[in-house]
Amino acid sequence: MPVHHAPEELLFDYARGTLNAPAALVIETHLALDPESRSHVKDYDCIGGLLLEDLEPAEVSSDCFAEVMARLEQDEERSQTEAPDEDTADDEGVHDAASLLPRPLRRYVGKELDGLPWRRVMSGLEEADLEAGEDEGTRWRLRLMRIAPGTSVPRHTHKGVEYTLVLQGAYNDESGRFARGDLQVADAEVDHRPTAEPGDPCLCLVLTDAPLRFTGPFGRLLNPFIRY
C-alpha cells in the first residue's frame, strides 16, 4: 500500500481537468495504485457536482444533447471492454507489462517494456523516453527509468519540478523509502541521491519540466557541459 501520496493540490487540479497531459498521465497512473488518492479525487468530483447544481442554467446549441449522448455511449462501451484499473494494480511478482504498468500507462506506452527504446545512462541505470510534448512553452520530459538493485542515481537537485512514480521495486533517499505506487514530487528544495533497494530492479515513471542540477563533487563539474 503506498505511503507517499500525491499532494492535495495536484489531485484537485487533476479532478478539475487543469493538469497538462503528461502530469495528468502520471497522476492517473498513481491513482490506479493508490486507493487513498483515488478516494480524495472522488471527493473532489462530488464537491464539483454539488457546485454545478448551484449554477444558473445556460443556453446550449441544438446538437449538444446528441453529442453528450454519443459520448456517454462511447464511455459505456469502453467500460464494458476494460476491467477497473485496480484489478492489476497489486499483481506483485509478475514482471510483464500487463502487471507492472497500470492501465493508464499501459494504454499510453502501447507495447511491451522490452520493446521500448531503452538506452544506457550509466552502469546500472537505463531509461526509455516517452512522448510528452510542450505546454505553454514548457518542454516536459517523460520517461521510464530502470535502476538496477543497489545502484545510486548521482546526487542532484532540480531546476524545476520532478515527479517520480515507482512501478516496481523501491528506492531510498533522504526523504524516506519509495515503493510501488509511491509518488515523490521534488523541486529545488530537494537535494537527494536515490538508491535502488536489493531485489527487483526499480522501475519508475519520471516527469520533469527542467534539467536536473548535479550537486555531488564530481557532478558539479559536469553541470556546464550536460543537460539531463
From TrEMBL:
Residues 73-94 are annotated as: Disordered. It comes from the Bacteria. It holds the Pfam family Cupin_7. CDD domains: cupin_ChrR (cd20301). Residues 83-93 have a biased composition (Acidic residues). InterPro entries: Anti-sigma_ChrR, Anti_sigma_zinc_sf, ChrR-like_cupin_dom, RmlC-like_jellyroll, RmlC_Cupin_sf. Residues 113-207 form the ChrR-like cupin domain. This is ChrR family anti-sigma-E factor. It comes from Fodinicurvata halophila.
